[in-house]
UniProtKB/TrEMBL annotation:
Pfam families: GATase (PF00117). GO terms for molecular function: transferase activity. Keywords: Glutamine amidotransferase, Transferase. InterPro entries: ChyE-like (IPR044992), Class_I_gatase-like (IPR029062), GATASE (IPR017926). This is GMP synthase-Glutamine amidotransferase. It comes from Microbulbifer yueqingensis. Gene3D superfamilies: 3.40.50.880. SUPFAM superfamilies: Class I glutamine amidotransferase-like. The keyword ATP-binding does not apply.
Length: 234
């Protein structure tokens, strides 16, 4: 399977040397489950899109510090591309910003949550077990870094997992789009470094709580398997 990564942001320059860019994080996460996977990166944040929607088998939209409602020149074309992916029923995964953008592009709504920033390890409860999921977990944990949240689902969408902090944390749109608010590609060292760098933005108390949460286990490998199972069922 060849996966096209729609890259919507860059890793902070202070962290690239140690952790790599987002497409590399996703490649490691997913190749740990299947070393045969191929990846192609499209710098959509710079206006670079696939020439042919079918030049890859599936797409993955990364996270970004940008809000989906911001007036950036690349966001409208990306939303148009998401609508095309939806129309063509192309298998697509959205992560954080990608999760929010898919909802917004298809008729839902994303906004800055009055619950504030979520960082560190968050826990989610599975609300529904889809047929493609071979290893369901009643509760699973992943790393997060977000203030925006999906607050209204688009038509054809259903919530698969939620938490009190983020009620629409894992969403499936029809049979071909799967989205997560959390970051399965993040590692604990990367999350910790990001919290340290953005302490003034997140706030000291939020960072302290987020760093304390890093003692909890995360289920990134299980979620990676879910992602691949979802893409392969297509």
């Amino acid at each position: 399977m060849k996966i096209g990564v729609l890259k919507t942001d860059d890793v902070r320059k202070e962290l690239v040397g140690e952790f790599g860019e987002y497409p590399e994080m996703f490649a490691k996460l997913l190749r740990d489950q299947d070393p045969s996977l191929e990846f192609v990166t499209y710098e959509v944040q710079h206006g670079h899109f696939p020439d042919d929607i079918d030049e890859v088998d599936a797409y993955l939209i990364t996270g970004s510090k940008t809000g989906v409602y911001e007036d950036k020149p690349w966001i409208t074309p990306l939303m148009e591309f998401v609508r095309l992916l939806h129309e063509r029923e192309k298998p697509t995964i959205g992560i954080c910003f990608g999760h929010q953008l898919i909802a917004q592009a298809l008729g839902g709504r994303t906004r800055k949550s009055d619950k504030g920033w979520g960082v560190g390890v968050h826990s989610y409860e599975l609300q529904e077990t889809p047929s493609w999921m071979s290893e369901p977990l009643e509760t699973f944990r992943l790393l997060v870094s977000h203030q925006d949240q999906v607050e209204e689902l688009p038509p054809g969408a259903k919530v698969l997992a939620s938490s009190d902090f983020c009620p629409m944390a894992m969403v499936q749109v029809d049979e071909h789009m799967l989205t997560f608010q959390a970051h399965p590609e993040f590692t604990k060292p990367y999350s910790n470094s990001l919290m340290e760098l953005r302490k003034e933005v997140f706030g000291g108390e939020v960072v302290e709580k987020g760093q304390a949460s890093l003692q909890n286990d995360i289920h990134e490998s299980t979620v990676a398997r879910w992602m691949l199972e979802f893409l392969r069922k297509q």
